[in-house]
Amino acid sequence: MPKITVVVPVYNVEAYIERCLDSIVSQTMSDFEIVVVNDGSPDHSEEIVLNYQKKEKRIRYFYQENMGLGAARNKGILEAKGEFICFIDSDDYIEPDYLACLYQVITHEKADIAYCGMRQVDDQKNILGVNPQTEEELWSFEQPSACNKLYRLSLFKDYQITFPVKLYYEDLATIPKLLMVSKKNVRVDKYLYNYYFNEGSITKSYGKRVVEMKKVLQILEDFVKANHLEAYHENMEYVYLYAGVINTSFRMIMARCFSKKEIVEMIRHFESVYPHCYQNQMAKKRFPLKYKVIAFLIRHRMITVYRWMVLLRGKVQHG
């Protein structure tokens, strides 16, 4: 049995998949398997992977009809043979000691999750930005990524955790669950994961699907209740304020296809779950001034002013 299963979902990445696989097979540790899941990719990705498999026997290849990233990762979880599992998006790549560093610390510390910092890179591997992934950021659930972490596979099995299928924000619906049930999480203070920044993907986040945040946060809320995780009330309240009230309203404005009434109705939904979210202590500590201003405008229903700030003056920048 391999120590680690590396899951690589594949869809329309013929330009990047070989770079990704090169970075995995050149790891300084060797006791791992690579589970490649082709999610019905219409390009030449399958041909590239199958040719690669001829020279790299650690690759196990699976094909399924297109069901989205979440379904592809779930297939990887189902087929995994390792004690630990990680996910690498097929247009990203990892540093040579990625697996070794995470495996060493997760086993030495007897942890359930190990995580590291991330770099944002372009086509030429130029570094566009870095995310050190601090413990404070991790527990804020602000921008959870499945891809810079090594997990004990039993977390998924014991708590029946899977990624949602055909749903936006699949990482947000899943990673907080794992963090909350993990007995111990440890950080590697290195930038070992390289995230490819696709400029063309920015506008895709501003469309009708932004309203799926409502479903995603409900998935988290249901999990918290089912597993009696009330100790994470403040974390959940924070993510409802940040991802629900602020992030979703911002993206609905940017999408330019929602009325003021629809935006207010969405805000009211999130507020109804956590009525005191505007007093959240994590938000008071973490929010920069611009987020505090946004929260004030939303709370007092100054939506017209908020929209004007976003669309006309462009003073509010939000990821």
Q: Could you explain how this protein is built, in words?
A:
The protein is an alpha/beta fold. It has 2 domains: 4-200, Spore Coat Polysaccharide Biosynthesis Protein SpsA, Chain A (Alpha-Beta Complex), CATH 3.90.550; 203-313, no CATH class. It is 44% helix and 18% strand. The chain has 13 helices and 9 strands. It has helices spanning 17-25, 45-55, 69-79, 98-108, 135-140, 153-158, 175-181, 213-226, 233-255, 260-273, 281-286, 289-299, 303-313, and strands at residues 4-10, 32-39, 59-64, 84-87, 93-94, 113-121, 127-131, 149-152, 185-196. Strands 1, 2, 3, 4, 5, 6, 7, 8 and 9 form a 9-stranded mixed beta sheet that branches. α8 runs antiparallel to α9 (233-255) and α9 packs antiparallel against α10 (260-273). It is globular. It starts with a strand and ends in a 6-residue tail after the last helix. Mean pLDDT is 93; it is low at 200-204 and 315-319.
Lay out the secondary structure.
Elements (H helix, E strand, L loop, with lengths): L3 E7 L6 H9 L6 E8 L5 H11 L3 E6 L4 H11 L4 E4 L5 E2 L3 H11 L4 E9 L5 E5 L3 H6 L8 E4 H6 L16 H7 L3 E12 L16 H14 L6 H23 L4 H14 L7 H6 L2 H11 L3 H11 L6
Parallel strand pairs: 1-2, 1-4, 2-3, 6-9
Antiparallel strand pairs: 4-8, 5-9, 6-7, 6-8
